[in-house]
Amino acid sequence: MKRFLELLPHRFPFLLVDRVLDFEEGRFLRAVKNVSVNEPFFQGHFPGKPILPGVLILEAMAQATGILAFKSVGKLEPGELYYFAGIDEARFKRPVVPGDQMIMEVTFEKTRRGLTRFKGVALVDGKVVCEATMMCARSREA
Predict the structure, then answer these.
(1) Is 73 helix (H, G, I), strand (E, B) or coil?
(2) CA dist., res. 96 & res. 119, Å (int)
(3) Residue 23: its H or E element
(4) What positions carry a catalytic annotation?
(5) Domain that holds residue 15
């Protein structure tokens, strides 16, 4: 499963997918993020009551969609990347804190005019912490 993570251009401290748990090309991907108190963003969000920023929950789900896209939509040409292009219907249901294991489940919906749409949900202990519809675009590096 490590080969899946090599598909992402992200690296520490911004790589937010620790492991791919399950995958079916063109359909879905399940991945995990183990949330550690040592994450650098917890120093300021929030001192004494660390909470994973919601935008980073969305980013973790977007990275999971990136892996699914790389494996499903086709091989990238040199100089191409999948860029996060949009988000709709994002909802945060409960906080994610150090010690949590966050599972991201993303499903492929469709590709149209260069945009690929995914549904994503993040869970901790089987409970939804975030859900959203995300889009990514295949594009040449800027």
Answers:
(1) coil
(2) 20
(3) strand 19-24
(4) 45
(5) 2-140
The mean pLDDT of 23-45, rounded to a whole number, is 94
- CB atoms under 10 Å from CB of 115, counted, come to 13
5, 129, 3, 112: which is closest to 57 by C-alpha?
A: 129
Q: How many domains does the chain have?
A: 1
CATH number, position 89: 3.10.129.10
Instruction: Tell which phi-psi region holds residue 23, choosing left (phi > 0), alpha (psi between -120 and 50) or beta.
Output: beta
91 pLDDT higher than 60? yes
Average pLDDT value for residue range 46-58: 96
Assess contact for 63 and 17: CB atoms under 8 A. Answer: yes
In this predicted structure, the answer to whether residue 8 has a pLDDT above a threshold of 80 is no
What is the value of pTM for the model shown? Answer: 0.90
